[in-house]
């Protein structure tokens, strides 16, 4: 998505979004802007990470700059993980920016103190912003060629695509 949509999905102003992704490079963009006035490109893992950073700063009043290594490690892991595989998970952040992504369970117990961020509320926002499926609508894998309605300019009506049965 572009910068305006990323700002909407993260709840950040465009100024703050640019500050975090470009000037301070806390969480770099996925596609750099081509020039002045052109928008940057953001993939769903980067938007999820930005939403986590917002929680870090606004709910827990943490300074973000000292946690750049945490954000870099998380971004690498999120890029290797399927969107659908993230549902029902929580991010557990421990001391020295160590972290793990664990199954969401209300009786989560760790050997040390930790900050737990539940991912489902953030994934719901991303699901609508990126038109990604909710877990109850998908069996764990995206369709290779999803069915979409198309406009037929000759009849002014929508035509549903036909599917062949195997």
Strand order of the largest sheet: 2-1-3
Share in helix: 25-40%
Query: What's the quaternary structure here?
Result: single chain
Question: How many separate helices?
Answer: 5
Largest sheet: 3 strands, antiparallel
> What's the order of the H and E elements?
HHHHEEEHEE
- Cα-to-Cα separation, first versus last residue: 35 Å
Number of strands: 5
Broad structural category: alpha+beta
What is Rg? Answer: 19 Å
Low-confidence stretches: none
Instruction: Tell me the fraction of residues in β-strands, as a range.
Output: 5-15%
C-alpha geometry: globular
Q: Please tell me the overall pLDDT.
A: 80
Can you give keywords for this protein?
two-stranded antiparallel ribbon, 166 residues, 34% helix, single chain, 3-stranded antiparallel β-sheet, 5 helices, alpha+beta, 12% strand, globular
Account of the protein in words:
The structure is a single chain. The protein is of the alpha+beta class. Helix content is 34%, strand content 12%. It has five helices and five strands. The protein has helices at residues 3-10, 14-23, 44-58, 68-79, 120-130, and strands spanning 89-93, 99-103, 115-118, 150-152, 157-159. The strands form two sheets. Strands 2-1-3 form a three-stranded antiparallel beta sheet. The protein has a two-stranded antiparallel sheet with strand order 4-5. The longest helix has 15 residues, at 44-58. The radius of gyration is 19 Å and the shape is globular.
Secondary-structure topology with pairs:
Layout: H1 3-10, H2 14-23, H3 44-58, H4 68-79, E1 89-93, E2 99-103, E3 115-118, H5 120-130, E4 150-152, E5 157-159
Antiparallel strand pairs: 1-2, 1-3, 4-5
Helix pairs in contact: 3-4, 3-5
């Amino acid at each position: 998505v572009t910068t305006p949509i990323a700002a909407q999905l993260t709840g950040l102003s465009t100024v703050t979004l640019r500050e975090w992704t470009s000037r301070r490079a806390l969480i770099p963009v996925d596609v750099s802007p081509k020039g002045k006035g052109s928008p940057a490109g953001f993939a769903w893992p980067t938007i999820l990470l930005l939403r986590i950073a917002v929680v870090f700063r606004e709910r827990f009043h943490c300074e973000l700059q000292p946690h750049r290594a945490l954000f870099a490690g998380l971004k690498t892991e999120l890029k290797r993980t399927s969107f659908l595989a993230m549902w029902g998970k929580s991010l557990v952040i421990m001391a020295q920016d160590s972290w793990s992504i664990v199954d969401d369970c209300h009786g989560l117990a760790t050997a040390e103190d930790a900050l737990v961020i539940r991912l489902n509320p953030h994934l719901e926002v991303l699901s609508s912003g990126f038109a990604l499926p909710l877990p109850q609508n998908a069996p764990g894998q995206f369709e290779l060629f999803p069915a979409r309605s198309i406009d037929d300019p000759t009849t002014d009506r929508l035509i549903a695509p036909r599917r062949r049965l195997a």
